Sequence to fold (214 residues):
Amino acid sequence: MGPTTEQARSAGRTWGALLLADISGYTGFLQGVGDAHQALIIDSPEPPPAYGLMSSLLETIMAAIIPPFRLVKLEGDAVFAVGEELPLRGTAVVACLEACYAAFGARLAEANSLWTCSCDACARIHTLDLKFVLHYGEFIAQRVGGQEEVLGPEVNVAHRLLKNHALDLTGGRPYALLSDAAVAMLGVPAAGMLASTEKYEHLPPINVHVLPLG
Fold:
């Protein structure tokens, strides 16, 4: 049984879904582009096209999940969003993630078809992909330095889950990893997902379900 609305809002605390949409290969791709096009970055008033691509991919992700989720912030190569009163339940949760993945793939394919640079670094555009972590728990939203921060142990759990063994289960395919808490509280059917357990220092084992994408 989940918390009541009164309980969820007491003491500035709330319960809800915690979603991270993370672009895999982002750091290596931009580092390679930066090394290959150092002169362009320094001398040109315009950044290399790869930088604009990354912004476009992040915007595509946000357009697909907000709403029903609410954006908290961008974390480099990841979009962090929450759903305090998420209207999605059951298969609709999975459908939202799959639609976001499809939109990401379509945007990446469009960019690839228009790409003009064939250097080794830019050619790695095809290595970019998207993964999701969805958790559910209690958190605190507060203003820090004029910006909202979402804090709490369950937020830490969601971020820890980005480092996982899901690729071993999917054979390298992209995935959505849902914690048991997310599956239970959002009524997501786990049939067809791959069950696993993630272990982290100072945390009890976390049971998860992995949905292959793509």
Helices lie at 5-9, 26-36, 38-43, 49-65, 91-114, 153-160, 166-170, 180-185.
